[in-house]
Specification:
Elements (H helix, E strand, L loop, with lengths): L11 H33 L2 H37 L3 H28 L1 H7 L7 H11 L3 H16 L3 H25 L3 H24 L15 H81 L3 H28 L1 H8 L5 H14 L2 H16 L3 H27 L1 H31 L1
Subcellular location: Cell membrane
Membrane topology: Multi-pass membrane protein
InterPro entries: MATE_fam, MATE_MepA-like, MATE_MepA_subfamily, MdtK-like
């Protein structure tokens, strides 16, 4: 189950490769998880169903963001404690993260289910899409805590030196989801209910695998008993607050995708109606997949960066960062080229040519993909800032790319460029953010010299 990994002495390229390959493969399975839903819903239920899933997507992304926030924050803190030989403290941090995040997300899911129609309207659903949106929400939202546990738990499994097991935690749910999607939608004809249930059951299995791993006493990173005295609860609150501060940028990265979908849904439905939202949903299925790959690169570099930062080895920190950045940028360029060349084939996986949304998506997807290289640069930079406990620049960059500049571009570009401006809003915000990141690095370099 475990690999031979030494974060402090193994050669950086070899160490990064041992973490990257299973992590990327795990993310590929996660991507299959996401894209399969879109293909089966689009092909098996229709264009409106695809738009309905996109309406609910921000709820899932916020949930995943919470899981990743606790995963990154606890993993960074635990990595530094392990570098100092404080194994029990690292276990306590992991246990606190899992318990507190699970309680928060149970409350979140319950609140959404109680006020589902109002939440659907707030997310931009039209009356035509409302029945499909609610059907999907009622069978997906209650299982969100399992999804978040799967997202956070893989950080702890990788930190314990088992990236291959973390990959399986992605692969097994993906295979279950693909099989059940086919059975529930095409064989049983369960429509949106079947799609939601297939996804939810996959997440339950993945979360169960995480719980099994973290409960094994032979593992270094595992659950431990946490005291419930008043003093211990105060320390838990302090520790959780610090983890959240370190991981907040990751939460905001997921929140940024949610904001992109939320804002884009409103703008597309205003300019092009439900067909525009259906076309945009294909980009929204595609975008998190690209994000998963970049996130895999950042997650692979994170324990290397954090451990060596805690050990005071600046040269290894910089070497790992440069390798992660080069990998991400080259992949970003490859993703853009592939999207531009095969946009028809990509859209065709989700929708038949008879739907009006097909033509809208084929014309817009290459424009949307033009920002992938800058997206890669920004995501890896945010991961670096988090890993070396620079929470402020990480949060600044995340807020710029995901909220401030994104909303500004969605507001400003459509009146100037029409529909092309909607598709170019996200790439434009990534380019402007990359300029800000370069300025932050240059400022840090000047301070280091003086």
């Amino acid at each position: 189950m475990k690999d031979s990994i030494d974060f402090g002495s193994m050669e950086i390229p070899r160490l990064f490769r041992k973490l990257l390959i299973p992590t990327v493969l795990g993310m590929v399975f996660s991507a299959a998880f996401v894209i399969t839903d879109g293909i089966f819903v689009g092909r098996g239920v229709g264009s409106d169903a695809l738009a309905a899933v996109n309406i609910t997507a921000p709820l899932f992304l916020i949930n995943t963001g919470v899981g990743l926030m606790f995963g990154v924050g606890a993993s960074v803190v635990a990595s530094i404690h392990l570098a100092h030989g404080k194994v029990k403290t690292a276990r306590i941090n992991v246990t606190q993260a899992v318990v507190v995040s699970s309680l928060l997300l149970v409350a979140y899911s319950l609140a959404i289910c109680l006020f589902a129609p109002g939440a659907a309207r707030l997310l931009g659903s039209s009356e035509r899409l409302m029945p499909l949106v609610l059907e999907y929400m009622y069978w997906f939202v209650p299982f969100l805590p399992f999804s978040a546990l799967l997202s956070s738990g893989m950080f702890f499994v990788r930190l314990d030196g088992a990236p291959n097991y973390a990959m399986l935690c992605n692969a097994v749910p993906a295979v279950i989801n693909i099989a059940l999607d086919y059975v529930f939608i095409f064989l049983f004809g369960w429509g949106m209910f079947g799609a939601a249930l297939a996804t939810s059951l996959g997440y339950v299995v993945g979360a169960g695998m995480i719980l099994v791993y973290l409960s094994r006493r032979r593992n270094v990173i595992r659950f431990c008993r946490v005291k419930t005295s008043r003093r211990s609860l105060r320390l838990t609150r302090r520790n959780v607050g610090y983890m959240c501060r370190l991981g907040l940028s990751t939460f905001l990265c997921e929140g940024a995708i949610a904001a992109m979908m939320f804002t884009g849904n409103y703008v597309f439905i205003r300019y092009l109606g439900e067909d525009g939202v259906a076309a945009f949903s294909i980009a929204c299925y595609f975008f998190p997949i690209i994000f998963m790959v970049y996130n895999a690169i950042g997650q692979s570099a994170q324990p290397i960066l954090s451990y060596n930062f805690g050990a005071g080895n600046a040269e290894r920190v910089q070497s790992a960062f440069r390798l992660a950045m080069m990998t991400a940028v080259l992949l970003g360029l490859a993703f853009f080229i592939l999207t531009a060349l095969f946009s028809r084939q990509i859209v065709g996986m989700f929708l038949d040519e008879v739907y009006p949304a097909y033509g809208i998506a084929v014309g817009g997807l290459p424009l949307f993909a033009s920002g992938f290289v800058f997206f890669a640069f920004n995501i890896v930079s945010i991961g670096y800032f988090q890993s070396v406990e620079r929470a402020r620049p990480a949060m600044t960059v995340t807020l710029l790319r995901g909220f401030v500049l994104l909303v500004a571009c969605f507001v400003a570009l459509p009146p100037l460029l029409g529909v092309r401006g909607i598709w170019l809003a996200v790439p434009c915000s990534e380019v402007l953010t990359a300029v800000a990141v370069v300025a932050i690095f240059r400022r840090g370099a000047r301070r280091a010299r003086y």
